[in-house]
Prior knowledge:
Radius of gyration: 23 Å
Strand order of the largest sheet: 1-34-35-36-37
Largest sheet: 5 strands, mixed
Strand content: 25-35%
Helix content: under 10%
Amino acid sequence: MRASTTRRTFLKAAAALSGGLGTSLKAAQTGASADWRHYGGTLGATRYSSLDQINRSNAGDLRVAWIHATGDSQARPATKIECTPLVVDGRMYITTAQVQVRALNAATGELLWKFDPFEGIRMRRSKGINRGVAYWQDGADRRIFMSGSGQDVMYCLDADTGKLVPGFADGGILDLKQGLDRELGESTRCFYATPGVVFEDLLIVGGGSGSEGPAPAAPGHIRAYDVRTGKRRWIFHTIPHPGEFGYDTWGKDSWKLAGGANNWGGMSVDSDSGLLFVPTGSPTYDFYGADRPGSNLFGNSLVALDVRTGERKWHFQTVHHDLWDYDLPAQPVLARRRRGDGWQDIVVQISKQAFWYIFDRQTGEPVWEIQERPVPGSEMEGEHVYSTQPFPTKPQPFARQGFDDDAFVTDISEEARESVMRRLRDLKRGGLYTPPSRTGTVYNPGTVGGTIWGGASHDPEAGVMFINTNNWPKYFTLIDAPEGVGYPYMHGGYPFLVDHEKYSAAKPPWGELLCLDLGSGEYRWRRPIGEYAELTARGITGTGTFNVGGSVATKGGLLFLGATQDEKFRAFDTDSGEILFEHKLSAGGYATPCTYEVDGKQYVVIAAGGGGRDIGTGGHRSGDEFVAFSLG
Length: 632
């Protein structure tokens, strides 16, 4: 029986209240809020704010308002902070270099409480990473949910005190290795470093091992839990079980053995239609798939699910039988594009291989044609290379693809070019989707893109998107595994292809920022971002740097972005790409910022965590600061 209009209106209002979404569901999707209540800024992951106190006319007047130093960074193993803070009712929630959860006064940076999941635990290895927390509220019941890559659990904390909520799961701790409809080995990991999605009374998580193999890995099934009790409400098998759609795209027993096909970059929700958009990762082993013949649904797919039941509505697979670790790395953006005299609601999924996959949000129909094109075969014994891959015809890729032409090789100096050409004599290279090999295969973009988890931001009023990109190729080599380990091949790591000075082997620019018009599918502007001071001193400019972390767009006509190896935080004019403000941080701002308003004053905050980026020549030091900017 169809719900009446009155009941539907009531349910939507209840969802806004219980999910802590403010007074308007549409506001929750577009960014009309003084808070920053979601990892992606909004349920639709627009990373957009309607605040405009800070704007084009005064961005140059920005000053440091406060700094919160977490005091827990370290050099070995190098820590980093990838956290985007949440801000709700004047309180900020962050995660630190050692994955503590902290609550701060959002106007002053003063510490209110902290929770350390590793308290009393001594360990030499890294405590992992976390990109932020999820928030839920029902009246006076306010909760924070956090998981990191160092432990295979989800913590539920009282948002007012930082204490574990005893009524959730097992004393406030949810074991993510349970509830997968499959037993896992004791050493198999199952974690989720990106914040889950909170909608109505559901906490929705992805996860999996995060391992590219070849060792056994957990399946990346999507699960929804009751936010109050921690009981599982539904599950979607990203590696289908017998009788489920997609089961025949794998080997017979893959559902028992295969891992991956996990969501690790985050999800987004259309609260009006009740659709959950899930981008998935590669099946494991990521670089050799003899034991997983077929296209391997729902690996490397954008899947639209009913957010309340987990029922599949539509899907699109962006890579068949992935061999390149080309998993979908970031939240889908629920955007809109000009179409004639009106607007079309779309979902935009970016990819490591620098493609835009853009679909009608409700039907899954591509906005522009996506063609299946032949790709190269493999020389590896037993491999089942899929003969075609989907190529979007528009927009044009946002970064260079393939490395088969000498014109792609760096030209910053004769020495740099010659060092790369010597290295290429021993490597196999070609266009996009050239498979891994024993001799080593160059692939561009590499495993960090293109782009990575920072994703894209969207101005829904202008109908444009912004994305920061990389042009840093990698090479990958399959090597024989020792006898008796259960798999035939290992790999030789994830090295970047660089010149003799550790700069990208590719012709600059190496890091760029682009603005895409979603109506026409054409770029309005693009510019290099970041610089290497030592190259600038030699007269080599416009290279850009390696960059990681995302951007935030605002109604004030500004785009805020850290990300670059020169450790600067910048504000760009969204109309032109002109730099209107920049500030040297104490360490690299390798995270996505947030913006919010408290007591009538707008702030912008970036985590200066640095570390963990042993590429290029700058931005390697670890930091521990959250830096807030305002207009004095």
